[in-house]
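Table S2 (text version). Query chain:
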Amino acid sequence: LPLLSSSCSSFQLQERFPSSLAGSEPSTRLEHSCPANYRCEPSSVRVQELLLLEGVRQVEVIEGCQCNASPSECLRLPSLKTFFPDSPLEQTLDVGRCSNPEHPGEGLFCLPMDFDSILIKTPNGHRSVQIVGSCRLREPCYRVSHMEYYYEVVLNSAGEKLELIKEIDVGRCLGQCDPGSPCLLR
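Corresponding structure-token output:
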């Protein structure tokens, strides 16, 4: 997909707007920085880990933006994220994302169909990162495969302990639902 060489403006989303914009429609609050059929999207994202009272929290920090063509079909698109930036463990992965074609009135959304996992090295061992495998037009609420990995200790035929990684498809409900509908996100 083509992208424009000029970068789009970065906006920080806020819940408060200047009083001059408070009563205006959302579409008039921000200037459009990309031409028609293009979207202003992150070009680089770093994942920063913060140690909070509740534990470690990951925050995605957008470092740059660019105007990308907005495809009319449902596609898996690249989405680069850098984990542990400026450290010996720095690693940039394409975690993927789904395009967002407009299908008004059809009730279909371009949503992830399957996911892969990649183990990355962290300061505290290894961690699994979820990668979007493919995208497809779907109803607004559906189940996808979601793999979780657990260390399992078993005894081999000689009675020795072995550590194995056990893979379990625990599933995940994805989508957007109307109030009162049974789709739950987990």
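Notes on Table S2: DSSP finds one helix and twelve strands in the chain. The CA atoms of residues 77 and 97 lie 5 Å apart.
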